[in-house]
Amino acid sequence: MTLIELLGTEVVQWALLAGVLVAVSAGLIGSFVVPRGMSLLGDSLAHASFSGIAVGLVLGVAPLPFALLSAVAAGLVIHLLEHRGITRGDTAIGIIFAGGLGVGVILATTAGLEQELLEAFFGSIQMVSPGDLLLLAILLGILLLAMVGLYKEYVYLTFDEETAEASGLPTHALNVLFVVLTAVAVVAATRIVGVLLVASLVILPAAASQHVSGSFRQSVVLAVVFAVTATLLGIVLAFLWAWPPGGAVVLMSLALFAIAVLGRRIKEAVGAAA
């Protein structure tokens, strides 16, 4: 099948549309996650969401709503454990990371859902349904409303949380909301790249954008552009060459990151030589 024929099929068009929705969410939230040093949070929430996915699969219903509930609950637990001083943030993340994955694996294997287990781990973009598209669009809408409406507050919180708190900003409430929004973006991304690779789609485009942007606002825009580009290229390659969609998307994200780093090094070298 040629590329033109492939792009004309309904399943590919749905997959590409879902990819755009997911990539915008991942690129946007990643722009704030990476500079805050919270990259592992996305990975932990992805693994926690797997428990919800497993519950949905066992019940025979759409797993995304259960995945979202599971990820949001896990994020709130992580924040509570750290905020109350019960344990350090990285330890809380590790606890949720292991617990979510363990519970999900037990539920899925006990119910004989090994194939569905693999799809959850590595993504199943070929099976995107209109219902999935609607839910992904709603999740992206929520994320955009929150991040655009509170953009200045989150920029302040990202780069100087202590001063933000001293200035009177409700940092605790904003951090709780940020964890919830991260869970939303992560759960959306698992539909494309799966539980095991979701952190890459959140981290790599944002990390690449930091190497070529001149301001934070520009880095946010470029992170979204890089995420969308990597996702669309990855999905097309996955259909053309029968690659796992998650792996293809991550490979494209890695390529863009490498290009961004190399481009910055070349620019610096030229500037130094001049």
Topology diagram in text:
Elements lengths: L2 H5 L2 H24 L5 H21 L3 H21 L5 H22 L3 H9 L7 H20 L1 H9 L1 H6 L4 H23 L4 H15 L3 H26 L3 H29 L1
Helix pairs in contact: 2-7, 2-10, 2-11, 2-12, 3-4, 3-5, 3-6, 3-10, 3-11, 4-5, 4-10, 7-10, 10-11, 11-12, 11-13, 12-13
Quick tags:
274 residues; ABC transporter involved in vitamin B12 uptake, BtuC
Model description:
This protein has one domain: ABC transporter involved in vitamin B12 uptake, BtuC (Orthogonal Bundle). It has 13 helices and no strands. The protein has helices spanning 3-7, 10-33, 39-59, 63-83, 89-110, 114-122, 130-149, 151-159, 161-166, 171-193, 198-212, 216-241, 245-273.
Give a short summary of the structure.
The protein has 274 residues and is an all-alpha fold. The chain has 13 helices and no strands.
